[in-house]
Amino acid sequence: MKSTFLALMMWLLAASAQAARFDHAVWDGLLQRHVVTLAQGQATEVDYAGMARERARLKTYLDALAAVKPAEYRQWTKSDQLAFLINAYNAWTVELVLTRYPDLRSIKEIGSLFGSPWKKRFVPLLGETRSLDDIEHGLIRAAGVFEEPRIHFAVNCASVGCPALRGEAYVGDRIDAQLEDATRRFLADRSRNRFNPKTQRLEVSKIFDWYRQDFERGWGGYTHLSQFFARYADVLADTDDDRRLLRARQTRITHLDYDWTLNARGA
């Protein structure tokens, strides 16, 4: 009898925890309908016109994000918290683009002489009005919290040079697999990351210049960027010889130009 009671209590606790998770279904549906996959998933385009037609549904999702109290957020698992923040960043980025779409060639046009679009405080989240930078740098990249370098392949800056906006919402119980998939797809994109056998150089996105520190302070077990590239040598290089060079960490790095063109369908 006692074992049955304990089993029932454990089931109730698990069911309660599951129920407390934030529901990203609305955002997931929007992404599935309006994100177009390119090049075997290595890149995506966003149908912003389609997003605009469903802006009321997007607003429903954004309002739900804003309604989450800090105390509620703190009760979630780290995985659920991270999924929540990545989705919030991406959804609010889409909303920011829609404020100027279709008269927009780059998200950077939304900025001004006095600040970038990422510093604009317009996001009601966890009890404060925040900027996109606040979400990314103050919450997602905060020291001692998630310490996950692969987030750089999940948060999307609405630009061609940025890692793809995923065609589904991030969710806590699958986020590790989702981040790994996003990482490998981005690194496999030869327009943004490639090993050049003629120069023996690894030519990679500027992301690895801007955020090098996140790959060198122990996050994910990496203390040097070359360790990260060695881990993904099978994706970055096309021949066994080139992969061996990457794994031996005997290559120099060049950063490619970043394309800030809006990641719009048909742009």
Tell me what you see in this structure.
The protein has twelve helices and seven strands. It has helices at residues 2-20, 25-34, 48-53, 55-67, 70-74, 78-98, 132-140, 175-187, 207-210, 225-231, 233-236, 240-247; strands at residues 35-38, 43-46, 123-125, 128-130, 194-196, 201-204, 252-255. By secondary structure, the chain is mostly helical. The longest helix has 21 residues, at 78-98. It folds into two domains: 23-173, no CATH class; 193-257, no CATH class. 45% of the residues lie in helices and 9% in strands. Strands 5-6-7 form a three-stranded mixed beta sheet. A two-stranded antiparallel ribbon has the order 1-2.
Short description:
The chain is mainly alpha-helical. The chain has helices at 2-20, 25-34, 48-53, 55-67, 70-74, 78-98, 132-140, 175-187, 207-210, 225-231, 233-236, 240-247; strands at residues 35-38, 43-46, 123-125, 128-130, 194-196, 201-204, 252-255. It has a three-stranded mixed sheet. A two-stranded antiparallel ribbon has the order 1-2. Strands 3-4 form a two-stranded antiparallel ribbon.
